[in-house]
Amino acid sequence: MAWIILLVAGLFETGWAIGLKYTQGFTRLWPTVGTVVAMIISLWLLGMAMKSLPVGTAYAVWVGVGAVGTVILGIVLFGEPVNAPRLISVALIVAGLIGLKLATPA
């Protein structure tokens, strides 16, 4: 269950990272509110997952899920570049996340 909570926490991290773009420097009320709510939920879920997962693993997976999700949404929503070095880098992050999962009992 901790791994599912951690995955959801990472998805909320993606949400607040993308939300930052929409706040326009925290000058737009509702995007700012949504971003702050996503931050709180993300950190709360991360804390819940850390009850049973090692801190290094949980934090690395949380950041990794957020990073991969943010890159993908950056491409889809903002037309950010898609090229081999970026895709290979994202694949390496995913490989690292899988490695951490396989190496961590729980």
Structural summary, described in words:
The protein is an all-alpha fold and 106 residues long. The chain has one domain (2-103). The chain has 4 helices and no strands. The longest helix has 24 residues, at 55-78. The radius of gyration is 15 Å and the shape is flat. The model has no long low-confidence stretch (mean pLDDT 96).
Keywords, please?
mainly alpha; 106 residues; 4 helices
End-to-end Cα distance, whole Å, is 9 Å
As a percent range, the share of helical residues equals over 70%
Average pLDDT reading: 96
Low-confidence regions: none
Contiguous helical run count: 4
Number of domains: 1
Instruction: Characterize the main sheet.
Output: none
Short summary of the structure?
It is built from four helices and no strands. It is an all-alpha fold.
Secondary-structure blueprint:
Blueprint: H1 2-23, H2 29-49, H3 55-78, H4 84-103
